[in-house]
Amino acid sequence: MRIGLYSLFLIGSILVGHGQDMQSENLSYLKGAIVRGDSTRPVLSLIFTGDQFGDGAKHIRKTLKQEEVLASFFLTGNFYSNPKFTRIIKKLYGDGHFLGAHSNRHLLYCDWVQRDSLLVSKEEFKHDLLENYGKMKEFGIEKEEARYFLPPYEWYNDSIAKWTANLGFLLVNMTHGTLSHADYTTPAMKNYRSSTEIFQSIIRFEEQNSSGLNGFLLLMHIGTDPTRTDKLYHYLGPLIKHLKKRGYQFERIESLLDVN
Question: Most buried among 193, 204, 228, 260, using CB within 10 Å?
Answer without folding.
Answer: 228
